[in-house]
Protein: mitogen-activated protein kinase kinase kinase
Amino acid sequence: MEWTRGRILGRGSTATVYAATFHNSDEILAVKTSELHRSEFLQREAKILSSLKSPYVIGYRGSETKRESNGVVTYNILMEYAPYGTLTDAAAKNGGRVDETRVVKYTREILRGLEYVHSKGIVHCDVKGSNVVVSEKGEAKIADFGCAKRVDPGFESMIMGTPAFMAPEVARGEKQGKESDIWAVGCTVIEMVTGSPPWAEVNSREDPVSVLYRVGYSGETPELPCLLAEEAKDFLEKCFKREAKERWTATQLLNHPFLLTKPDIEPALVSGFVSSSPTSVTDQTFWRSVEEEEEEETEELQKDSRDLDRLNLWGCYSERIGRLRCVGGLDGPRWDMEGGDWITVRVRCEGTMISGSQEELIISENELVGEL
Ligand SMILES: Nc1ncnc2c1ncn2[C@@H]1O[C@H](COP(=O)(O)OP(=O)(O)OP(=O)(O)O)[C@@H](O)[C@H]1O
Structure:
């Protein structure tokens, strides 16, 4: 395969993704690259991605090693190019959150993708806004299968994912199955609606270990955004059943009224992430009206005048977390609160933690257990 590498589209913990062009066609590609000697996760990803074909999963175009002009040997996955970035980008471009029509559309498409992936006996293990990309036609497609695994009982068990999106059973290091992906879908909806993952109040002041502890052991479920209509809240409650076996499946959720009441929107409406008007807040089918919210807030304030914060209808969105990034090295992990995306962690159930990049030592199971 002859192709030329272009600009960087994004960086993750295991690889860098570039735009590229095929020499024998006009197709633009995305190429996910890491040095060959660090490409264990990329090679696993290629194996899984090559077995999948769905409109809601990023398209696989091949994989190969390549000697770069500087002599470095790289491993590369060639994929369909998604020009509109990730759902996290979509929220950022739209003032911190995705508008309601797109939240419904993208949630439906993520679930269609997961329904397919799960039917193939595969669990994604790292569903989150920054791992869902938007295609040229405006469809949400699940990407980054670097943590994905087959659900075969004999398969090596490894806990993987991003702390704020982890289900309780994953945070406790017990198991990671299809149900854990569904919890992460709920977290992704919260991320789209509010611009922040769940547990933002913990994230902003503490560290990911505290998030894992809270998810795994507190008995709590993520706080539901206060402006959501009851239908949307009910949908999230079905995702956030703490008992994995009580959680709804992708197929069941696709038939939830939250997703059934709105038809698919035209692709033309999606392209370019045309910024939506804040008036969507008043749409009764998804958001509760500001008046309704105000009335309830006033009643609550009368009941408890100490709760002054609740006067501000937008208060529940005002907390923006400092993004966490682990940038450890041989000296051990440290948490960077300033920038970068939510990181993915990979912990072997038995033994020490490994991450995709040898430079980014993230956290060891022993440290985790020690902290907990
Ligand atoms: N097919 C694609 N088209 C366009 N951009 C993409 C594509 N795939 C990935 N990207 C961009 O590259 C970024 C990193 O990709 P990806 O999440 O696959 O890397 P990673 O190293 O596996 O990340 P993680 O830290 O989640 O493990 C994405 O967040 C996105 O911005």
